[in-house]
Input
Amino acid sequence: MAATKDDQISMVGEFGNRTVPEMLIGCWHRKSIVFRDGKVDTATKVIWLQTASGVADIRIPGDRRDLSAKTLDECSPDDLLALAEQDCFAAVTLFDSATTPLPTAIWPPELDILRFQPAVMFPEDGWLEWRDNGLTMIEFAPSGAYEEDWRLREKPDFAFHLKRLDVDCVEEIFIAGNEAIRARGKAVSARSAHDGGANTLLDLGRDDPSHLRALVDCEFSYARRSQATGHYQIELSTLPWLEQSRLDVEWAMRDGDPSAVLQDSSGSRWRILSLWRR
Output
């Protein structure tokens, strides 16, 4: 069952602020990254879901241990260290079409929404070049440090960015057609850890597993809409035991007023930050 503009979303036009061009909107899957020294990484699972402004980015090691049968409370210290090697963020993407030699995607730190790690692992802006009728995007680090090859599975007909209103920690949903990411923050701050000199969760957790358990309790879940059921099913998550479960986002596409406060199936309240339609 393919998502279409007519049967999946009743809203019309655009809503909220758009800071990127239409060709950047969608869910990009990284094929590879090539570093300056020639090293190539094709194993890390990397997903960049871009809405009209907000972005969610997931980076999970390809050799992460299988923790699908556990819960967070059941994870051993070594399990927690494995989870601490993940890197994700949610932010706002800005775009400058006038830069040379290529237009530039920019992620100002002051517009960060949520970060898994205490420090930014890839702090550079990105020069962007599209190929293959917009289905391939090459991102170049201006310093020459790396080059990333991104692929778009399909051009989406719509994109949403939503924020949950009735929670203490950050929780947001990013949707681009048949693909979606839920990002939920942690109760403790990794950013304050960076202020104290730590750059990674591994720096923090080797001697304090209980603190590390709280730090890795941060969800970034990628889901794809099932052809069979029409529901969004989680395929990749920073909390592996959530994989293969349903990501409930269909409620976000059935309200006719984008400025209204929405309720999900559990009664939680959400607001649309941006809506884009092709």
